[in-house]
Amino acid sequence: MNGPLSNDEILERIEQAFAPHECTAAYTDEGQRFDFEITDAHGDVIASMSGVILSSVREPAALDIVISYMRDKVDEAGKRSA
Asked: What is the pLDDT of residues 18-47, one digit of tens each?
């Protein structure tokens, strides 16, 4: 994919990265930032991030860094619950 990602593409990539976990997102600051959280099968929040500046993750490589960081948090939560 070339060019910057749209808001929908950003959210879609996050949702795909954390499936089968549920991912919810909300836009803040008039759509300039978003918050998202990832929940387990029981509805418990296992990772969250607030105030992500959308313009900073429009490039796929930048979004991949955020996803990698969050994946580490999800993995840590999984180890704690095991």
From this structure: 989 999 988 888 888 989 999 988 899 999
What is the reported pLDDT for 82? 64
Amino acid symbol at 61? A
- The pLDDT, as a whole number, for residue 59 is 93
53-59 long-range Cβ contacts below 8 angstroms, 24+ apart: 54/7, 54/10, 57/5, 57/10, 58/4, 58/5, 58/10, 59/4, 59/5
Beta strands across the sheet bearing 22-28 = 22-28, 33-39, 45-53
Query: Residue 57: phi, psi to the nearest 5?
Result: -120, 15
Residue 41: strand, helix, or coil: coil
